[in-house]
Specification:
17 strands; globular; single chain; alpha+beta; Immunoglobulin-like
C-alpha cells in the first residue's frame, strides 16, 4: 500500500479547485485551507508546509485569473497573550440624532479611567422598517468625517473627541467609533452631542462569571464540531466540512462510515442555508440530533423572542489565554446581540493548528444558541464588536449563559434575566 502523502494530496486538491469558478470569489473560504487545517490537526503534515501549499495555490489562482503581479503572504500568527481587559462602565444609548442631512444611531458608551468610546451607526442605503435615514455615500457627506462633535456629560465634563475605528457592514450601514479622552463621570445620566441630549442607561441585570472544562473529545472530533460552529463572518453561512472530512478519511485518520461522520452530516443537513441576517420563517423538529445541536436547531425559525436590552459590564477570568467582556445584551424577535470586548483580538484568520473560538449560549431550559461576529474593531491587542446569536431567545428563560469556547475550557458569563424587562429600541 502506498503511504499517504499529505502534501501531494493538498496539491492535487488545489489543482482541482483552480478549475472551480466558485473557489475564485473574493473572500471565499477555500476548501484547500479547510483540508490543510484538518491534516495538520491529524499530524499528517506540519503547519508551515501546509501553508506553503496554500500560498502556491493562491499565486497560481492569481496568475490564471489574469490579475497583475504575484501574491505571497505569511501564515496567520498564533494567538498571542494579551494584557488583561481593563474594566469599563458600559452604558446603552440606543437613540437616533440628526447629523448633517440624516440620522445617526448612537449605540452605547464605554467609560474607562482615561475616557471612553462612543459607538454609532449610520445607514448608507435606503432604510427599511426601523432603520435610520439615508446619508450621503460621498466621503465628505458625513459631517463627522470633517470634524468630530462636541460632547459634554451631565457633570459638565468636556472630553476631547477624536475619530476611532469602524467599517462598513454588508447590510448597508457603517459602524463607527468616537474616542473620548479626558474625564467622563462614571454615573453620568446623559451626554450632549453637538447640543442634542441623549440618556445613558446603566446596569440592569445581575451576572456571574467563571470558567468550565469543555466536554472531553478527541482533537479531531473537537476540530470538526468547532469548525461547524464557526460561521463565515457577517454572512452567517456555515463552513463546508466535506473537504475536511474527505482529507481525514484519505489520511486514514477518520472512517467514512463512523458514528462521528454520521452525526456531523445529520447536523449539517439541518443547518440554515441562508445568511444569518435573513429572517427565518419555518420550523421543523430535529429528533435524533446530538446535543447541543438538537436543541439549537429545534428552535431554528422561532420568532417569539422578547424585546429588551440588558446592560452588563461583566468581565470573565482568563480562559486558555482569552478574556471576554460582555457589555450588553439586546434581544429581538428572532435572535439576540451581545456587545463585547475580547483579548487578544480573535477577529482575524486563525493559524492552521489552532482551533477557532466558538461563541455559544445556553439558557436554563436546556436551549442552546450560536453566535457569529457581525462587526467590530481592534484596540491594541484586544477587539470589540457585536455577536449575533440565533435562534430567538426562549421567552420563558430566566438565565442566559454566554459561553466562549477556546481550547479545553470555556469562559462563562451567566446572566439573570429579570421579569418585566423594559424594551429599549
Amino acid at each position: 500500500m502506498v503511504a499517504f502523502d499529505a502534501e501531494v494530496y493538498l496539491r492535487r486538491l488545489g489543482e482541482r479547485l483552480l478549475d472551480d469558478p466558485g473557489q475564485q470569489q473574493p473572500g471565499h473560504w477555500s476548501a484547500l485551507r479547510g483540508a490543510a487545517s484538518a491534516l495538520v490537526v491529524a499530524g499528517a503534515i506540519d503547519a508551515d508546509r501546509a501553508w506553503w501549499v496554500i500560498d502556491d495555490y493562491a499565486t497560481a489562482r492569481r496568475i490564471r485569473s489574469g490579475e497583475p503581479g504575484f501574491v505571497h503572504f505569511g501564515a496567520p500568527l498564533r494567538r498571542r497573550k494579551a494584557d488583561s481587559l481593563m474594566p469599563r462602565q458600559f452604558r446603552v444609548i440606543g437613540q437616533e440624532i440628526l447629523v448633517g442631512r440624516g440620522q445617526v444611531l448612537l449605540r452605547d458608551l464605554a467609560i474607562a479611567a482615561e475616557g471612553g468610546t462612543l459607538r454609532y451607526r449610520r445607514y448608507l442605503d435606503a432604510p427599511g422598517p426601523g432603520q435610520v435615514g439615508r446619508l450621503s455615500r460621498r466621503a465628505g457627506g458625513f459631517p463627522w468625517n470633517v470634524s468630530p462633535p462636541e460632547i459634554i456629560d451631565s457633570d459638565g465634563n468636556r472630553p476631547a473627541v477624536r475619530f476611532g475605528g469602524g467599517g462598513r457592514d454588508g447590510e448597508g450601514y457603517v459602524d463607527g467609533e468616537l474616542e473620548l479622552r479626558g474625564t467622563i463621570a462614571p454615573e453620568a445620566a446623559w451626554l450632549e452631542v453637538d447640543g442634542t441630549r441623549v440618556a445613558l442607561h446603566g446596569p440592569t441585570a445581575r451576572w456571574e462569571v467563571g470558567v468550565e472544562a469543555l466536554v472531553d473529545q478527541s482533537p479531531l472530533e473537537r476540530f470538526l464540531w468547532r469548525h461547524l460552529a464557526v460561521a463565515v463572518p457577517r454572512s452567517g453561512v456555515t463552513t463546508d466540512l466535506e473537504p475536511m472530512i474527505g482529507a481525514l478519511v484519505a489520511a486514514g485518520a477518520l472512517e467514512e462510515g463512523s458514528l462521528l461522520v454520521q452525526d456531523l452530516r445529520a447536523v449539517i443537513a439541518r443547518m440554515p442555508r441562508r445568511p444569518l441576517h435573513q429572517r427565518r420563517i419555518t420550523r421543523a423538529s430535529t429528533p435524533g440530533l446530538v446535543q447541543p445541536w438538537g436543541s439549537l436547531l429545534d428552535r431554528e425559525g422561532a420568532d417569539d423572542g422578547p424585546e429588551w436590552t440588558l446592560v452588563l459590564g461583566a468581565v470573565s477570568p482568563a480562559c486558555d489565554g482569552v478574556q471576554f467582556a460582555a457589555n450588553s445584551i439586546t434581544s429581538d424577535v428572532d435572535g439576540f446581540e451581545v456587545e463585547f470586548d475580547v483579548a487578544p483580538n480573535l477577529g482575524g484568520v486563525s493559524a492552521l493548528e489552532e482551533l477557532p473560538v466558538g461563541w455559544w449560549a445556553r439558557d436554563d431550559l436546556e436551549n442552546h444558541y450560536l453566535g457569529i461576529l457581525t462587526g467590530g474593531g481592534v484596540r491594541g491587542d484586544s477587539a470589540q464588536g457585536t455577536l449575533r446569536y440565533w435562534p430567538a431567545l426562549d421567552p420563558s428563560a430566566k438565565r442566559l449563559d454566554l459561553l466562549v469556547c477556546v481550547e479545553s475550557h470555556q469562559a462563562v458569563v451567566s446572566v439573570s434575566l429579570p421579569e418585566g424587562l423594559e424594551t429599549r429600541r
